[in-house]
Amino acid sequence: MGEDDTGSVVLVAEDDPELRTLYAARLESRYTVRTAGSGAEALDVADPAVGIVVLDRRLPDGDGLDYLDDLDARTDGAFVAAVTGVDPELEVATVDVDDYLVKPVDGDRLVETVDALDERRHYECDVARYYALASRRAALEAAHDPESLRDDERYVSLVEELDSLRTSITVPTAIVEDPARSAALYRDIAAPE
């Protein structure tokens, strides 16, 4: 797919050449894909056409999350899926990413994540923020015991923001074309845990 087509542009920043090639191959039938093997390379190929970034946490020139602000500025606010080979630390509660994946990430999960981020680009800001926070919460809950989470102020703050957003979002603004996703979104917003 060429960059003049209607598909979104996805930037894959992954230092492992095999994974980078695999991720690009899985995405290129649906998206225009740019690749980078380091944070510096990612900044070189990032521009406002990029709508989604798949960002490895461990790049040869630093933590991928250290590049978030620069990537955000160069892409005009692309959605970011952080990818890591280790369980997320509690700092994830405060990191401004839209989804968080733990390796190994199979091709189907990668495509589902990028599709969801592409869909979120069309949501109102509160709905997109809600999904980003819910993704971070799910990653933390999968990696940590509930007691340690309850005692962490970053996690508590994340849950409080989710609860606040849940009460402020009106479901009609969040309806999407896929009925299953609409139903899931409605359940997530309308029914507290």
UniProtKB/TrEMBL annotation:
The keyword Transcription applies. The modification 4-aspartylphosphate is found at D56. One of its GO terms (biological process) is regulation of DNA-templated transcription. SMART domains: REC. GO terms for cellular component: cytosol; protein-DNA complex. Residues 9-118 form the Response regulatory domain. Pfam families: HalX, Response_reg. GO terms for molecular function: phosphorelay response regulator activity; transcription cis-regulatory region binding. InterPro entries: CheY-like_superfamily (IPR011006), HalX_domain (IPR013971), Sig_transdc_resp-reg_receiver (IPR001789), WalR-like (IPR039420). SUPFAM superfamilies: CheY-like (SSF52172). It comes from the Archaea. The keyword DNA-binding applies. Keywords: DNA-binding, Phosphoprotein, Transcription, Transcription regulation, Two-component regulatory system. This is DNA-binding protein.
